[in-house]
Protein 1
Amino acid sequence: MTGRRKGEQAASGAAGTGTVPAVRTAAEGAAGSAQELEVRYNPADIEARWQERWAAQTGLYAAEPADCGKQKYYVLEMLPYPSGQLHMGHVRNYAIGDALARYMWMQGYNVLHPMGWDAFGLPAENAALKNNTPPREWTRSNIAAMKRQFIRLGMAFDWSTEVTTCLPDYYRWNQWFFLRMYERGLAYRRKSKVNWCPACATVLANEQVVDGCCWRHEDQRVEQRDIEQWFLRITNYAQELLDDLRTMDGWPEKVRTMQRNWIGRSEGAEIAFDIENPEDAPADEGKARRGGTAILPARDGAKTWGKVSVFTTRVDTIYGATSIQLAPEHPLVRQMAAGNAELAQSVAPLLEQQKQAREAGDVGAIEKHGVFTGYYAINPFNGERLPVWVGNYILLDYGTGAIMSVPAHDERDYEFAKKYGLEIRIVVLPRKVGGEAAQNGERESLLPYTEEDSLLINSGPFSSLGCQEAQHKMAAYAAEHGFGKAMVTYRLKDWGISRQRYWGTPIPMLYCETCGIVPVPESDLPVLLPENVEITQQGGSPLGKVPDFVNAVCPKCGGKARRETDTMDTFVDSSWYFYRYTDAKNDKAPFATETVAYWFPIDQYIGGVEHAILHLIYSRFWTKVMRDLGLVKNNEPVERLFTQGMVIKDGAKMSKNKGNVVSPDDMIARYGADATRMYSLFAAPPDRDLDWQEDGVAGVSRFLGRVYRFAAKHGDPAKRSKVPGTVASAASHALIRKLHQTIRRVTEDFGGRWHFNTDIAAIMELVNTLTAAEPQIAAGDIPDAVLAEILRTLTLLLAPFAPFLACELWEQIGESGNLLRAPWPEFDQALAKEEQIEIPVQINGKLRAVVRVDAEASEDMVRDAALANEKIAALLEGKEVVRMVLVPRKLVNIVIK
RNA sequence: GCCCGGAUGGCGGAAUCGGCAGACGCAGCGGACUUAAAAUCCGCAGGCCGCAAGGCCGUGGGGGUUCAAGUCCCCCUCUGGGCACCA
């Protein structure tokens, strides 16, 4: 077993509870004669002492007021859900933010580094069900436990601005915002689908649906039910949310791309097709009509049965449309099936398939099935009559819930047409294949052909136009003739916030028997979440079973009213919590506009990449709404975003849901908080996934021990001379050079790259160089002043990563001020510079030699040095030099024949 | 299925702008110290061939651009995340 066990730490800790480092003689008997004293790095002891000292300093991590004269820096990590235990993903997230906060303090900024709890949510109700603990109690004790862990980890949070979303002083503002949005028409009510378990008689979260069945009733298939729910009109902001992504260059490109795709703007056209009355069909078409696989030619004077609008991004291919496909839930399908039992029966399985795919979360991968309705729709461009089908892959909530199917030029349509034998008609060809010249066989091989840099064929008056030009002209033509128009649609949907749950913010609405929907007056806020509610996860919304809550008086007419019993999505809580930190105790408003104006936008936001879409779009939306309400002046909440990778263990995401969690407490007990935090920064670059390996923590702990022992050994001589001395020996010159190179690397990296793993490696290299110089130190080749400067700087460099040890060293080397506010060291470019550099010499791209030259050597000098090299000279003998590539300060490549 | 990432020694990773592949650490091996162990310190270490000097190969696979490719381009495989009620 490597590493120290708890018992050992306790034993040695007891030996050194004072402020003097624990010093033990190596062995009792021989100790008298042994010169060396063994100094042991004991993180449990050091960290307990500093934790106590920090706890006694109130306001240690508090931000200063706006008029302090310093530049502000708001660094924020995503707030945790209080599950009960920090996991390693948390440790990593907060270690990154904490390092940055500490660095910015040392750079002299006024730093806001707050913390809070995303305290509403489903797990509290699950826990209530399992342990019969009220969600409030469960959450409260989890918060207490996790707060202890944060403090044990030495995280520099200002707890005076702590925000807990399940408390009325926070969630009342959710309600307040909801009312503001309702007034502005941004909150509305409509029917939408939920997962329904008939056995529980309640709504299930997606997470509670396992393979299409209820998590508590394995054999009970989950149904989709339509219920009335509240929505926020995020789609009103779709274009702005999209446009602003262009300006957000402090965000990772991948997140911007994901959001761009999520918003999914597509430009196209909406085209209305008349549907022919089937009873009006000519008798001689009976046979052709039956299968619904063929297009029927245009005919005059057909009577209209109905109309269907389709949205297409490729109106230019409309002459290639060979069917119309409707979503199974499309209202027209219901009408068609009304007097047609056979159709109703065949549509039912399509509906079912789509539901199941939706539950399984792979709607896109659905095995395509379809049914012909018996109806035909008239293509307004050429009068042709297209069979109308119902397809299980058509979704009602995207576009118009109906498409024109163009098999030749759309992959999904192609697949469907092949399967059901529908016609495939080519109307677009590549420019080079072009026109009528190409043979049909050759054309077939191109299908489905979707390139837009192409030409139209067989498209009436639009033939031979380019696709894009045709799209504009055809949309204009449709508008002119009144059957369509150019249109923009978004994939983004309005945000459904109703949850049929207990542990969330009550939605402040009332339903009056006479007045209808009535908002709760602002003066009645907060609508308090009742206590002592039995959590059964059965029989509908828990609040619906609390008569005192449900029964209310209509504020308009004084009559009987029923309170809304749904609560809000917890994403509402996390959409604006970071504003509350700036003014956490305000009981008149969610926050003061001027205070927010000082602190916002957030300079650096740090969190898991799994939040790249939902949380980060909702909170952008919320900011824009608040701006329009006049509450904030910023358009966006976050200036710079950093998405950390996940912590992986044994190939799977480490998370509370997957049960492969490594306990930080265990790591801290064995290796200390510094080593645990530092390992989480050292094991991988922060934006990549991190594979947790306990041996690595032990390695970091060993490194910290080496630093500790070096300082213990040399701290005293360093104390004796704090005046920076002149560089005497070559050895001390080399140490100073390494020191300044290290400062440069770490400082530059904090500037934006954030590869803390390489910074820590650089600090390790510095320490390796130092310990390798022990003989020179012993020989007196390194002046005390140099040693003092190195130790002092090393301590400052470690401060953001290993705060406990850094504070300990700070005192050991005779410093007394607050390390948190000690100025970050500056590097001296001249001192960091190497005098000589190595230049690799290649022949035909293969490394053959390395030459040492002066760092300032000219091109000619480098060339001469390369050619003068024995090995190079030998290899060049008798060869013709075709070319010589000289890259200043990098390499020489000699190309020979 | 769609969208976004990733793949480098036995392992985690480094190489920041196309310029010495493998920094730093882990595990391993050898040595020092010790009665012994732990701890600590020193050294070795991509693969293959070779006593050595040295040579060849090598960044998931295949192709391409270039004096030069882990890095740029095209195609493919595997793998992680998200997909709107987990947070």
Protein 2
Amino acid sequence: MSYHFNEIEAKWQKYWADNHTFKAENKSDKPKYYVLDMFPYPSGAGLHVGHPLGYIASDIYARYKRHKGFNVLHPQGYDSFGLPAEQYAIQTGQHPAITTETNIKTYRRQLDQIGFSFDWSREVRTSNPDYYKWTQWIFIQLFESWYCKNHQSAFPISELEKVFSSEGNESVEAVCDDNVNVFTAEEWNQFSSEKKQDILLKYRLTYLAETEVNWCPALGTVLANDEIVNGVSERGGHPVIRKKMTQWSMRISAYAERLLQGLDTIDWTDSLKESQRNWIGKSVGASVTFNVNDHDAVIDVFTTRPDTIYGVSFMTLAPEHDLVSQIVTDEQKAEVEAYIEATAKRSERDRMADVKTISGVFTGAYAEHPFTKEPIPIWIGDYVLAGYGTGAVMSVPCGDQRDYDFAKHFNIPIPNIFEGVDISEEAFSDKENTIIANSDFLNGMNYKKATKRAIYELEQLGQGEGKTNYRLRDAVFSRQRYWGEPFPVYYVNGMPQMIDLEHLPVRLPEVEKYLPTEEGEPPLGRADVWAWDTNTNTIVSNNLVTLSGVEGSHDNGIYPLELNTMPGWAGSSWYFFRYMEEAANRGEHFATEDALKYWENVDLYIGGSEHATGHLLYSRFWVKFMHDRGFVGVDEPFKKLINQGMILGTSAIVYRVSGTNTYVSKGLKEGHDVEEIRVDVNIVNASDEIDIEKLKQWQPQFENAEFILEEGNYIVGREVEKMSKRWFNVVNPDSICEQYGADSLRLYEMFLGPLEQAKPWNTAGITGVHGFLKKLWKLYVDDNGLKVNDAEATKDNLKTLHKTIKKVEDDIENFSFNTSVSTFMIAVNELTAQKCTSKAILEPLLVLISPYAPHIAEELWSKLGHDQSISTAPFPKFEEKHLVESSKNYPISFNGKMRFTLELPLDMSKDDIEKTVMAHEKTIAQLQGREPKKVIVVPGKIVNIVG
RNA sequence: GCUGAAGUGGUGGAAUUGGUAGACACGUUGGACUUAAAAUCCAAUGUCCAUUAGGACGUACGGGUUCAAGUCCCGUCUUCAGUACCA
């Protein structure tokens, strides 16, 4: 009986599905454990071998935890809204829902054939109306909430209204827009309801705001910064303009400090936490207000170095700063305008890339130093960014290198305010070893003291205060796309109104085309049936909307719906809660309280590091918000997080002799002028030899090509790069499963190397793990059937088993899956050599292997006479006693270099070891009569002879 | 520039608290079985010197600490990832 993996794997996959083997229970006596993968976007290309890496790792862990007696939740679903389906729809007219459905089918088939222990009964799809109903609901909750700085928590907006009507807004410490005016309770109560709504919008956690976007009229869409190259669109090269659009924003900045603090409570890698810290970008300092001479204007700046206030010799504004046009003098006007125009032409990216060039223009205006009252020239320069802080800086050339370079370049004085420091060559930015000088009341102080004092003095003047600044901006939440969640929002006189929960979901309308309208409205602008009837609470035809406010028209209660859709991260910011509820109970809640209480949050989350500052930050934000409002009990979504490394492709390259249709093999290409052409890796074997017949069929350009071979073969060149269709280096798991089986694929992906490390895919080694599975099979079964019997386990058998138990358990706990595969190989090699047939050994061994290679484990388990799945068999218990040795093979080293080994009893005393070793003939030979200076004996470890 | 991770045979990688560097595989070479191939099995395989015995060198590079360093410390270089004129 040989190892027919295809039959075995199909059999057990069917068994698991039929018996709901991996269905998690919401009520259990076992402790819970929640293992989650980042759910995939179902793209048309299907899975490649890189995708399953993280899934295999989490599956091993989930299966291990089941063996360890946990009630494990290990679900899977699809992040099924997204751009590729929409773009495909634009090209073909095919509805994205249909493409998505087809793609999901492919994904499911591919996932199933790898034998994952997912509980599919809890599947989630973000594009499913039953799901996005609750995404819409969370959006409404954000709209109905404000953030109180005093309590560091979100509260219902209705409570804020109560405060406004009883005491106005002066005492309210809220995170809100900057332009909120102070009003009293009386004033509030007399405001029109429109005015009240307008004010409340400035406090809501999601709000409408004018945002600058990159608008490409030719493509009719908004582009992200990285879709623009040299001021034109990457795709098509069309001009891009900055355009203000009214968009929904999320007040994530309210949570900046908690998002930062929360990082200390979770078990993530340092690099990931560091990424989030950088993204949040906290800096502590002060805001300082400078009066502008001869103008009724002030310049606010943020500085981390208020202690250097006496070193200010000029100010710099971003060219886009609002004040520039107001304060520029007539003499400087032409120059300033030319400069602004020149910078506007350069894209943000160009400006960032070109750090070396120093440019700027004097505005002709002066500000007044808050203490010395001296005039300070005001410059504009593009090294100051409009988007950070206030878009203006107080320039201290002696303490900041950029200010220093700017001052040198334009011959602006560089006053030195540091004691005993030479600033003739560069700025002195070391704040730890600073003594302030030439600074009046700050003289002689260090950074800490001077900072405190400067802030105090500024406060006395009313020209500044201590301030903490965050880089984290509020997140724009509107997208001009079709294939995303519609907002549950309609507009009455331009004011947004929320649709009640009972009328959700607001379903995506049908449109004829998935492009923006000719007027530049989002695709939903093409929908004919896209208005909200407040009388019936249904979506009705747009024609029924009356133009309210226009004289002669009457308000019939039918209003236009929002045309934008939500961004990709909306649905993925809370999906982990949805899995907690069993599908049957999902109707009334996004998840019931019991389910949320039982599963709490994700114990282990595995996914790619590309989500470090997107999904992982937004999810934390939404969870903190939901926690504040009492919808969930936890404050962080993911307790432990692991990033799997990317699996890279190994592209294959053929060399075409320039200007011909002749291809020269890699080894012979020297001397030829060649072009590198990437070809399909699937027609190249592990020895880099290409199948020329297949190549000719692959693309017509090779059909009549000539090939210059070396030793009868055409050898390709190799290049390791990202797995991508355009490099023809994508390897699909299907063919691996077919050829070697899912268990081989699972073992091999783990065996490739450490989980978190990026590594190139190379099928060469897969025969190794496949051979291992065959050997494992042969340990249990031969031509006559099952070999396993009740023979008593030998000492060696037990030693091998328990060594393996210990190592594998440690490895899984440390996510070191590659080394446990080696451990299995060693165990099987040893047991084969020992001719072990003992059930007492081979049965527990199967449980150890089952998380990694579940199909073969189930098959052999049932052959051993079990009628239940191996998946919940208890994990074997490690017993130290089987590893206790009586002797140790001591390495004997001379001056640290190991020369020979010596078997000695472990209970031998230090002195006896030394005596025995020193008397040994090899020792005498090594020393050649020399007297050792010192002999180090570490019992149980090593002997080192010095001299 | 900054932040983080890493650099070990022909290749992927192992060495968890400083204690026999190269586990386990792949590849290569030789052999067995076979008409042949596949499969399987056995042996060798860091580099260099040496017939052998054995020796020298060796974990990116240069220093250091230690009886002992891939591992700890200082400096340098390289690669990858993220981020960037952050005031």
